[in-house]
Amino acid sequence: FNTAIAKLIGLTNHVTGLSEVPREVVEPLVLMVAPVAPHMAEELWSRLGHEGTLSYVNFPVADPRLLVADMVTYPVQVNGKVRGRIEVAADATEDEVRATALAEIAGSLKGEPRKVIVIPGRMVSVVA
Fold first, then answer.
1. Residue 51 sits in the same domain as residue 10
2. Looking at the chain, which terminus has fewer C-beta neighbours within 10 angstroms, N or C?
3. pTM
4. Number of folded domains in the chain?
């Protein structure tokens, strides 16, 4: 719940900084605010010129194509402590992630690592 509110605040702050805000952005934002602040959302909906309540309007649907990240950030741990972060393509292989992580933390290692564990999409853990 708190995450949803934080994301709405972030979107609102971004939109507020724009010189012009398209109606295609404002209307879905008002609809997304409705479950959290229904009275305010109803007032904004009427000020946008809509007749009737927004209760019967369909909730915005996310476009799945836009939800796919191009890049993924991995924290890199050495013996349980985060020593760096790497950013790789979302479709990078485990070997590419491993090589990038080892290059990032090369200064933190003394010799060859005993084990490198790659948890896809989450983190890289190196046991020295």
1. yes
2. N
3. 0.58
4. 2
Same domain, 117 and 88: yes
Tell me if 84 sits within 8 A of 73, measured CB to CB: no
CA distance 119 to 101: 12
b/e burial code for range 49-80 (CB count within 10 A of at least 16 → b): eeeeebeeeeeeeeeeeeeeeeebebebbbee
Are 89 and 117 contained in the same domain? yes
Q: Is the dihedral of CA 95, 82, 119, 6 positive or negative?
A: negative
* Residue ranges making up the domain that contains 116: 71-127
- Tens-level pLDDT at each residue, the chain (128 residues): 789 999 999 999 999 999 999 999 999 999 999 999 999 999 999 999 999 999 999 999 999 988 888 999 999 999 999 999 999 999 999 999 999 999 999 988 888 999 999 999 999 999 98
For residues 16 and 61, state if they share a domain.
yes
Q: Does residue 14 contact residue 25 with C-beta atoms inside 8 Å? A: no
> How many CB atoms are closer than 10 A to CB 6?
10
